């Protein structure tokens, strides 16, 4: 009897194990939108981030890509920079691809999977693992496509289209960025044309014209850098003689220095539609926005000094015999006696509205009549020195951070004077 009980216990245990396997084992997935759809499964067990190489082969040639230090580059048919998004979207699509369990009968040519029509896609990981997929045409219904796991088939219906990504030319993958600017770290810009040369320089106090010129308008420089960073090549001019497009000895060049290095555009023949250019990416044709970057004037700042309100913790002003000092408290600005006052905000508003005349006749600062200091904590500050009256009206003024003296118009000075008690 005891032996019979042990046998029954063993049989019950085996039965429980078989039930668990049946319940928890991974089953082919069904299309959630159609319970009658054929079961499907993952095509590859691979993580997109693990892919280090990609090769596309079709009847017309081979395209190869490799990832080095996290950056994708084309290695064949030539080594060039690429639009990485074009590569990663292939890797992402394949890593997420599912296929129906049951293949199709019929000739591979019916699905665009014959040798003449298909694209052979091979992805490799850093561990030496390699996986190959054969991509055919798109399915006539739904956003799906035909693929095969071997050259002999059968054709399988994939959960997404792949052909639109892999049936591209080398130029489709090339980066159309003529340069890769780091606009936030740009520190020097040089624009040279037959009409002259402009140099813009950045330091801790903002942008300046050259090494000893006037303050430049930050908004103008930022807007220019934004347009420069969005510049794109419309076509590539591989094999074109530079002399044929005015680039044998170009007279126009734009150079930007940033933390990533030095980036150069040399511009050649121009017309209403665009301009030929020698770029970091090679010889290309840019749109009309390439020529628009050749800006030689309109850089001079109209404002007096940069006012970064969120960083200010002190404000001192002297206008002739009148002097005022303000410090930032917990609830607002305080005067020299520690009382809350609205005068500091009124003075800052007047400073923001004040205009400088930096483009008129040159002036010299021969005496000091007043000064304005904007304190930003520690030793950092922006300042303005105000000097003698000028025959043309107003007073001489000079930025404490550098640059030559200029004229402070009488109306701007009057607006400041009206605020200081």
Description:
The chain is an alpha+beta fold. The protein is 19% helix and 34% strand. The protein is built from eight helices and 25 strands. The protein has helices spanning 2-24, 84-95, 163-166, 170-173, 218-229, 288-292, 343-353, 410-417, and strands at 40-42, 51-58, 61-68, 71-76, 80-81, 98-100, 119-125, 130-138, 145-148, 156-158, 188-193, 196-203, 206-209, 233-236, 252-258, 261-270, 274-279, 282-287, 314-319, 322-328, 333-334, 370-375, 381-389, 395-399, 406-408. It has an eight-stranded antiparallel beta sheet with strand order 5-4-3-2-7-8-9-10. An eight-stranded antiparallel beta sheet has the order 13-12-11-15-16-17-18-14. A seven-stranded antiparallel beta sheet has the order 21-20-19-22-23-24-25. A hairpin with a 6-residue loop joins strand 24 (395-399) and strand 25. The longest helix is centred in the N-terminal third of the chain and has 23 residues, at 2-24. The protein is elongated and about 100 Å long. Mean pLDDT is 89; it is low at 17-33.
List keywords for this structure.
single chain; 421 residues; alpha+beta; eight-stranded antiparallel β-sheet; 8 helices; 25 strands; 19% helix; 34% strand
Number of strands: 25
Beta-strand portion reads: 25-35%
Total number of helices: 8
- Give the rounded overall mean pLDDT: 89
Provide a brief overview of the structure.
This protein has 421 residues and is an alpha+beta fold. It contains eight helices and 25 strands. The relative contact order is 0.08.
Layout: helices, strands, pairs:
Elements (H helix, E strand, L loop, with lengths): L1 H23 L15 E3 L8 E8 L2 E8 L2 E6 L3 E2 L2 H12 L2 E3 L18 E7 L4 E9 L6 E4 L7 E3 L4 H4 L3 H4 L14 E6 L2 E8 L2 E4 L8 H12 L3 E4 L15 E7 L2 E10 L3 E6 L2 E6 H5 L21 E6 L2 E7 L4 E2 L8 H11 L16 E6 L5 E9 L5 E5 L6 E3 L1 H8 L4
Antiparallel strand pairs: 1-6, 2-3, 2-7, 3-4, 4-5, 7-8, 8-9, 9-10, 11-12, 11-15, 12-13, 14-18, 15-16, 16-17, 17-18, 19-20, 19-22, 20-21, 22-23, 23-24, 24-25
């Amino acid at each position: 009897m005891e032996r019979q009980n042990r046998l029954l216990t063993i049989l019950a245990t085996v039965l429980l194990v078989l039930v668990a396997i049946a319940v928890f084992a991974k089953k082919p997935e069904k299309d959630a939108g159609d319970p009658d759809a054929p079961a499907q499964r993952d095509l590859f067990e691979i993580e997109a981030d693990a892919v280090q190489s990609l090769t596309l082969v079709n009847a017309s040639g081979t395209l190869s890509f490799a990832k080095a230090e996290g950056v994708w580059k084309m290695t064949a048919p030539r080594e060039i920079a690429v639009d990485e998004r074009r590569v990663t979207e292939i890797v992402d699509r394949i890593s997420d691809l599912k296929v129906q369990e049951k293949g199709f009968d019929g000739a591979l040519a019916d699905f665009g999977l014959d040798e003449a029509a298909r694209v052979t896609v091979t992805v490799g990981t850093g561990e030496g693992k390699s996986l190959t997929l054969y991509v055919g045409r798109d399915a006539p219904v739904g956003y799906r496509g035909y693929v095969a796991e071997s050259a002999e088939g059968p054709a399988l219906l994939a959960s997404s289209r792949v052909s639109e990504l892999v049936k591209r030319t080398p130029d489709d993958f090339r980066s159309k960025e003529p340069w890769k600017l780091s606009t936030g770290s740009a520190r020097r810009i040089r624009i040279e044309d037959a009409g002259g040369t402009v140099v813009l320089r950045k330091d801790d106090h903002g942008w300046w014209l050259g090494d000893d010129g006037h303050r430049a308008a930050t908004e103008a420089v930022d807007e220019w850098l934004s347009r420069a960073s969005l510049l794109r090549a419309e076509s590539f001019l591989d094999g074109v003689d530079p002399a044929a497009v005015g680039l044998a000895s170009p007279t126009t060049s734009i150079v930007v220095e940033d933390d990533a290095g030095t980036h150069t555009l040399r511009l050649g023949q121009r017309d209403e539609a665009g301009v030929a250019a020698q770029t970091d990416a090679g010889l290309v044709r840019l749109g009309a926005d390439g020529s628009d970057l050749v800006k030689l004037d309109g850089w001079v700042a109209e404002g007096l000094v940069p006012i970064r309100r969120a960083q200010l913790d002190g404000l001192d002003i002297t206008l002739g015999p009148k002097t005022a000092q303000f410090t930032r408290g917990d609830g607002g600005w305080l005067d020299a006696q520690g009382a809350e006052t609205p005068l500091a905000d009124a003075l800052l508003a007047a400073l923001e509205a004040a205009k400088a005349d930096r483009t008129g006749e040159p002036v010299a600062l021969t005496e000091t009549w007043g000064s304005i200091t904007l304190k930003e904590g520690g030793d950092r500050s922006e300042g303005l020195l105000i000097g003698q009256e000028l025959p043309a009206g107003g007073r001489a003024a000079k930025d404490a951070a550098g640059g030559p003296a200029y004229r402070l118009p009488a109306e701007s000075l009057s607006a400041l004077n009206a605020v200081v008690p």
